[in-house]
Write a structure and sequence with these properties.
binds zinc ion, 18% strand, 5-stranded mixed β-sheet, Nucleotidyltransferase, domain 5, 10 helices, 2 domains
């Protein structure tokens, strides 16, 4: 089983300076390697409808890949000796980052989803570097030993669980300081197989007014403190835009804004974890609308500012369920709010109509009705079938 914990770092001034220096050097190297890839790509392709019959053949150069780019690093250290200050594996990790982003651009990830053209990163947007191999005993009391940076103070707000070994470590610069994400592995713990009670099932409808409504009709609202933090975000945003570009005062308020963004993100994450825990402690199976079905409910969802929030909530929910041996199912969201959950008739409603009342006599909240529809769509799911067969 693999998991990741994030801890806050408290580097000294000298350590902060070297982390910042590393980041700017790595950023430059990242951009250089990316440009190298683009160069080859542009030189060695030709539009299929505009290919000249007679053309000059450019001098062929091998396609830069992970290994060839990695081989250029010793030379880099000769021509730019200050790169020698960086731990070699951290530098090599830049090559794998370039490889990853370029592969996603050309051929897509494991689901075949292609990302856009990789962008050159500005110094502000390059915030993380990774040690791909860490010694197991790198954390001693409140210090972490990062090679070539030395012993850095770490705030262990929760201990590393027994039996887990530190595999990699990433250092990230955020608005309010430096963080270290360690990935942990315990090979002895197998992945949990779902062992569920198919009767303990609920559907959730995610909405704009309430965060979600379960098929038992229980709403989970968006917490007040989160809305407050978001309101404050708008106030600071205004402050930034009022101030003159390039001025000291603007720079100050930009920093403030970044901190507030982090605050909002932290609050949202906390809320998501708590909601997911509540749901999974009550139910064994949670059914939700599949957000990735193209062209269906996207129009309704895409406009919502909570869109990003929903997908991150669902990934937290799925992850938590997997670790606990529970199940989260995504179903087709088509017409979940229009159909009657009792007789199946279509009852068209506009978005502002919050009540569902059908000819068959069913009368309940719109979101509640949708949640029941969502739950009913999971009936016949292969895992549920297998579980109920085993129960019999
Ligand atoms: Zn009905």
């Amino acid at each position: 089983m693999r998991t990741a914990y994030q801890y806050k770092l408290r580097p000294t001034k000298k350590q902060t300076a070297s982390i910042d220096r590393w980041l700017s050097m790595l950023c430059a190297q990242y951009n250089y390697l990316l440009a190298d890839r683009f160069d080859w790509y542009e030189q060695n392709r030709c539009q299929i409808n505009a290919c000249p019959l007679v053309c000059h053949i450019p001098e062929l150069r091998d396609n830069p890949d992970y290994y060839s780019q990695k081989k250029t690093l010793p030379n880099l250290k000769k021509t730019h000796p200050h790169y020698g200050d960086i731990h070699s594996q951290v530098l090599q990790d830049v090559c794998s980052r370039v490889k990853l982003t370029f592969d996603r651009f050309l051929s897509g990830d494991s689901n075949g989803n292609r990302s856009g053209r990789p962008r050159f990163k500005s110094r502000d947007r390059y915030r993380t570097f990774t040690y791909p191999q860490m010694k197991d005993d790198c954390i001693q009391s409140n210090l972490i030993n990062l090679p070539k940076l030395g012993q850095i103070k770490i705030v262990l707000h929760r201990p590393i669980p027994d039996g887990f070994k530190v595999k990699t470590a990433s250092v990230t610069k955020k608005a309010d300081g430096y963080y270290c994400t360690v990935s942990l592995e315990d090979a002895t713990i197998p992945t949990v197989k779902p062992d569920i009670n198919p009767e303990s099932i609920t559907g959730i409808d995610m909405g704009l007014k309430e965060f979600l409504t379960t098929s038992d009709g229980e709403p989970v609202g968006i917490p007040q403190h989160y809305r407050k933090a978001q309101k404050r975000l708008r106030v600071i945003q205004k402050r930034v835009s009022r101030r003159k570009k390039g001025s000291n005062r603007r720079h100050k308020s930009v920093k403030q804004l970044a901190k507030q963004h982090k605050k909002v993100a932290d609050k949202r994450k906390d809320f998501h974890f708590k909601t997911a825990k509540q749901l999974l402690s009550k139910y064994d199976v949670v059914v939700h609308e599949d957000l990735n079905v193209k062209g269906l409910s996207r129009t309704r969802l895409a406009k919502s500012m909570h869109d990003a929030g929903w997908s991150s909530f669902l990934s937290i929910l799925t992850n938590k369920a997997e670790n606990a041996g529970l199940l989260v199912i995504a179903v087709n969201p088509k017409n979940t709010s229009q159909d009657c959950s009792s007789c199946g008739a279509k009852v068209p409603k506009k978005l502002h109509e919050r009540w569902h009342s059908c000819q068959c006599g069913l009368s309940l909240g719109r979101d509640h009705n949708a949640a029941i529809n969502i739950r009913n769509r999971a009936v016949g799911h292969s895992v549920l079938k297998a579980q109920s067969l085993r129960a019999q």
